[in-house]
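Internal QA ticket QA-208
Title: Verify multi-chain structure generation after dependency bump
Assignee: T.L.

Test input:
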Amino acid sequence: MPNSSWHRASTVAAVLLAAILSPSRAQAQQQAQGFAVERFYPSAAGAGWFVMDALDMQGDLGGAMALTLGYARNPLRIADGSQNLSVVSDEASADFGFAVTYRRFRLSLNMDMPLVITGNSGTLGGYSFKSPSVNPGTDPDTLADYRVGFDARILGQSDGPFRLGASAQLVIPNGRRGDYDTDDTFRGMVRALFAGDVGHFAYAGQLGVHLRPLDDSPTPGSPRGSELLFGAAGGAKLPVGRGADWAVVVGPEVYGATALRSFFSSSDTALEGLLSGRLEGTRVNRAQLRFKLGAGAGINRQFGAPEWRVVVGIEMFNRNQRPTLLGSQVDVTNP
Amino acid sequence: MLVGLAAWLLLAPARANAQAGPPSGHEDAAFDFMNLLSRNGLHDIDHETWNVYGQLTYISSWKRPFKAPYTNTDVNANVSAGTYSLLPTAERSFTGTFSLFFGLKLWRGGEAYFVPELIAERPLSGLHGIGGAIQNFELQKTGSATPQLYRARLFLRQTFGLGGEHVVKSSDPLQLGTVVDSRRLVLTAGNFTILDVFDRNSVTGDPRQTFLNMAFMTHAAYDFTSDARGYSWGGTAELYWDDWALRYGRITPPQNPNQLATDFRLWEHYGDQMELEHDHSLFGRPGAVRLLGYRNRVITGRFDEAIAAFQANPAENAADCTGFNYGSQNSSAPDLCWVRRPNVKLGIGINLEQYLATDVGVFLRAMVSDGKTEVDAYNPADRSVSFGAVAKGSLWRRPFDVAGLGFGMSWISAIHAKYLAMGGVDGFIGDGYLRQAAEGVVDGFYSVNLLKAVWLAGDYQFLWNPGFNADRGPVHIFGARIHAEF
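Actual output:
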């Protein structure tokens, strides 16, 4: 049976060839290490917007506490032209913010608590990706990177038409790269901030640099080193309630980041929009509450911008014109 | 000398108003940020809507070499730091913790608390070989030499006033300054340690201020369910009725014993505890009696079943475990991994505190657990007793100094001892062989206060029969602690 022999011999050869080649192919695949995928950096407690900073610090010693809950869908989805892989498909987190203000200055602390980070494992572009796995059962007390920040208003009054400020933040690593909640390196953010109130219009913006040592190129979707940060927000600010003790602010926030080494290239630029609304107390010298709600989507869904995102927040803050800190009573009597 | 010191501590006359234990009386006592604001008219410390406190503690321990005819190193070094015994060589250990305590008033009677904590640690012998008397209480919190931040607490507390007299609650970590009724219902839900609510003792107080040894933090035999850092999710209810208090709590256990992953199926696996407290006055000095019972229904292994499984089929040994185990490679020893299933563990204990003078208090804790199952979350002791005295330095004109002397002993059950003698491993102990004995410790410390906010402490511990093994020890452990509150 010459045909049978030839067939058997060719089968054995194919198996041997596959066996020889398979390990080398496997060795060629590199394991993606993970990084801090989140592009939504909540503003300091009491800063007004979700991401931007209203720069309205005033009075003597004051302070704020904030809780921001968020969910992002597909914040890390990579593609090589023929296939897609949602490495991080679901991300829910809680951000705890604390701030102390004194006149034009603010010192803040933000702590990010991942609630759920899940995704899909797979191979793409010669890289092997392992899905993150954070859930309350296996990680009951996880905290990710935390940020210590200092902000200062350099020009303008707290309620003026134009305010200019500067911000510096240190990101202290905590967490696991494989869970996509940290770079495992210190990072820094230096930003110029601007904001203002013109009649019933409020706006804010930022332009700065994210000093990021991690450069995992050419791993798809990974950081490319330091980045440019940018963003702007604007909206209508309308008084509500008896005596205008409360105000509603509704408007969009657009923000993003692009790698400095591939400036505004599509694959290395994240751009995201958020329609946000907030209800906030306006009285001075009393503890005030601010309720925030936002929903949005990735405009350029690369580099960590999600498919869509929802966020809610609550803040307790004060605007002191005399020396009391957060007052002695939360004012919820005049909604 | 120790007896003499104890007698002097107990009998010396009181001359100051502060009580033993943690700092008290913010207006005239310890320095802290909230007090500073209050003194400058920037904060209403008696009726708070928020507060923030912090603490920093570094503890260093040094263990002298000791006598040990055998040491169990038959373990997977990747899992268990290469030993299951307390190493007989000299060793150093440290822990460093940094905590922030945020409190916020939400509404009438409603409060929220959030505590992030940073820890770095290196235990003695990979935290193995000591049963109920681990030399540093902070080591119950899993960590590594690299500092790690985690969320220690996040919970809500709701107080419903039921009348009676007014009770002032001073501003403190995990307590907003306020006034409550002496008759009240307090509900707590979220993430906390059960020791925030149960088995409090104002004499031993905050362990960061008093004894270093874990035997004095709570009952050594109180195997309260928690994750590997000692924190749990769940809820508690406390009914205060003047001098009486009744407490109940249900909290989460770990998915596997002594691990961080938490089992949230509270209707299926849980730790229940109930405590009855009565505060009294004896010869004009305050005191309290607390009866505590707990019942865990958790996934653990029974010692008798592990032994029986091994004797029936030697293939069911420690080295061949197919489920979770602690890395033992001993193929001639039984292992609990073969018999883990939902089991019940019971314990009951008493906690006494009594001030003998204004500044001198004594305490006693004793507990008996059933000793049938492995340690689930705390430590392997099945029975324990601890007692001692704590005094503040007002007796010698240093009112913020603290000194204490304590004695603790713990035991294991006969079946527990048989399992260990066969080479089994239970959580933190397993010398490969065992000559059963009670493990004991004497702990003495002196804490010097500096600037009302920093305490420097020296500590000595004499530990005998480590791991309940009469063949090993005794061990001398010297410690130093720096503690700051702000």
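Spot checks passed. The mean pLDDT of chain A is 86.
Status: verified.
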